Structures are given as C-alpha cells and as structure tokens.
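Predict structure. Chain length: 489.
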Amino acid sequence: MDENQCRELLANLQLEQTRNIALTEIKSTLITANNSELSQNFLKSPELLECFENANSEQTLLVTDILSICMSNLSIDEPAEVKNVIEKSLSHANPKVQVFGLRELHRLLLAQPDSFANESVILLVIKCLTSDDTSVGTPSIDLLVLLLPRFVHLRSIQKNLEDVLTKKDIVRCRLYEVAVKVGSQSPALLDSMEKVLHKSVQELEGEDILLQLNVLQVLSELALSDHGMAYLENNGVFDNLMRKTNQLDEDPLAAILIPGLMRCYGSIAAIHPAKIYDGYPKIISLLFDCLLSEDFSVLPVAYDTLGYIAHPSEGKRQIHYKHGALLKKTLKHFHTIIRNLPNELKLRLLSCLQSLFSVDTTVIDNQITTITQTWYDYLTEQENLNLVMDYIRNPFPDMRRSALALLKAIVSHRWGQLYMLNTGGFVEYILDRKQEVDKDVILEKYEIIRQLAESTVFDQQTQAELKRYVAEGAFFVQGVTEVAIEGAS
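Prediction complete.
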C-alpha cells in the first residue's frame, strides 16, 4: 500500500458512511502486508484512535483487531504510541477492548518490563481488577503481580488498593490473591500488602462460609514462604482455623468448610509437616474421617490432600509414625471400595496412591522404601501387582494413564520390581508393543520400561529385551516382510 492509499483510507475513517468499509480494508491490508512500517503508521494515526472511542461496538472491535495486528507486527524501541493504545484500551467502556489491553500489556511486560510499567498503567489495571466482567477482572490479577513490586509504595497505588477492599466479595478475593502472590516474594513486599492481608484474615471471622472458603484457599499459598508462614502464625490464622475445626460438630453449616480446611492444612503440611502433625493433630484425624466416609462430596479433596501431604519423604515419615494405625485402616478401606467408586473418584484415588508411593529416585532412603512397602502390603495384602494390573487393562486411556503412573511410582522401589515378577503376564504386557494406541499411554509405558531396564531383578533375556525396547524408542513398529510365492497353476 502506497502513502496515497494509506492517506485515503484514513480520510475515509472520518466519514460515518465509509468508516466500516475503510476499517475492514485496513485490517485486510495489514494481514496481507505484514509490514512493520505500515503498522506503525496506522498505530500513530489519530483518525484510527478516534474510531476507537466510537460507541459503535462493531467499529470498536474492528479497531481493536487492527491495533492488535499492528502491535504484533512491531518491535518498537520508543513505546509512546504503544502506551497510548494500552491506556486507551484499559480505560475503554467495552470489556472486550479492556481484555485486549490487558493481553497486550502482559505480552509487552514479559518482553520489556521496564518500558511499560508506570503509575498510570497500574492504576488502570487496579480499576480493571474491580470489573464485573471476569474476563477483565481475572487477568488483572497476574498483571498486578508483575507490576506492583516496584510501585506498591506509591501513595496513589496504596489508596486505590485500599479502595478495592470496599468492593464486593469476588473483587476483594481477587485483591487478596494479588496480595498473597506479591507478599510471598519477600518480607518487605509482604509488609507493603499488610492492610490487604489484614482484611483477608478478618474475613475468616465472618459468617459467610463460602467467602471464608475462598479466602482460605488464597491464604494457604502464603505458607509456601517462611516469612508468609510466620505471618499466618503471628496473626492467629491457625488458631482461628483450629477453633472452626473444633466447632464442626456444633455447627452443621461449618461442615461446608471441611474441604477448604483440608486444602489449607494439606498445602502447609506438605512444606512444614512436623508443624501440622504436632501442632494440629485434630485436622489429621478429620482428614482420616473424610477418607473413611461414604460422602462422595468430600472424597476428592480428601484424596488430593492425603496425596499432597504424603508425597514428600518427611510427610511419609510423619504420617507413618504418628498416624500409622489410621493409615493402615484407610489403605485397607481403599482396597475394599476402589472397584465400586465412580470413574472420576477412581482416578483421584489412583493419583493419591501414586503420591503415596512416589519417591525421589536420586536419593536412596531405605527407611522410606520400607515404609512404602508396608503401605502397599496394607493396601493389597499380596506380594504382586494384580491391583494395578486390573486398571492398566481398563479400556479407557485416562484410567490406563493413571494406573501406569501408579505403576511407575511402585516400580521405582526394588520391592515393586520383585512384586512385578510375581504378577502373571505383567512382563509380557510391558514388552508388548501391540497393546496400546494412545500416544500418552505409550509414552508413560516407555518411561516405565526405561526405569526397569536399569533394574537387576530380571533374568538376562528379559533384561536384554527391556534394553532393546528402550533403544528402539517409544513408537518403534516392527516391520513385517511379506514374501509372495507364485506357484504353478
């Protein structure tokens, strides 16, 4: 497109009757040309940005498409025009335009963080955080986590954050998530988010159970850092939760909190196991009550929580030595019920069991090996892998993938490899390439074979076949030679 054509199109934008045609032609030209100079010319044009302000939604979205193409074609050293587009987008009345602005800002921040972070942009993103439209409010969370650390000390930003605390529940929860993610980065940033975090802790004293659940889920992420964990302890969050746990029998509505309580304590126990097992044993007892219950509504969270807290080696030690009798009862219960569970719960339980038997294979820990073997014996009372084999033969790929993931965890132990030898047809299944067609199942199976190829429990022939399987790769197909013999008639 030459300069005269470009000027003519921009002139047509000023006329209502030709505006839509001109916008459509500009969009088509930009897609075809893929020209950065042309894109920059349109991005700078006041005529195009004036259309951006037009109330006509069709025109506004056409302009948004054009600006998106322009910005994707550019590598601008001087970002003034881009900043102008971003700010106009974030302050636009149309949520779809705001989404465009948030998306472009996120892309630009990742590429040039120092060029696009400033006070005015942050204030606009804070306003987007309060939007009734979740497609605008939700992405604002991650953007503020990127933007705030360098600017959170500014008075205008602090005031605007405090104003968000007067908004409705869903908006406040977005801000709590921002505060936790920012505060987790350093003690200084946690101090800068103190007013927001203090308000979030106060929410746990209210009567809105669903709000408390949401806040609990957000606050539990603070435990991932030592200074965040100290904040939760110093502000009485655990004492508050313990009171709620003790009141569950008295308040029927409080039972709704059980999944949230378990998630919160579970995420903390995975990082600070001794603190939870020693300081809050009642929550562990509550977890086992849920695991042994017939209430399908709490089982998914209960399975996830058990898997989460028993995945680290220290978590395995804590639960085995401090709650061994309850765990034994629970594993026997799993063996009894797993076949009758709905598929969704079967998958959650298989994932839970995978976490129980998983270990860091780079570290030799005989104590953990003994613990996991004891657990498997509790689960099946058999020295074979028939239970796992049942689900590997399941016709549904998602079930087979989960069963293979469990198998991979089990055969990372020598006892698991020996139990595999005691399982009829298991070695033959593993080496049979014709059994599977699902790509992910094939890859999962291949990873197990790579692991087994390093084992010393197999005879020489099986060992050689395992190593050949690994050398040939996951998707090797045995060639078939057909010989045609032409006989006399």
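Summary: Confidence is low (pLDDT under 50) at residues 480-489.
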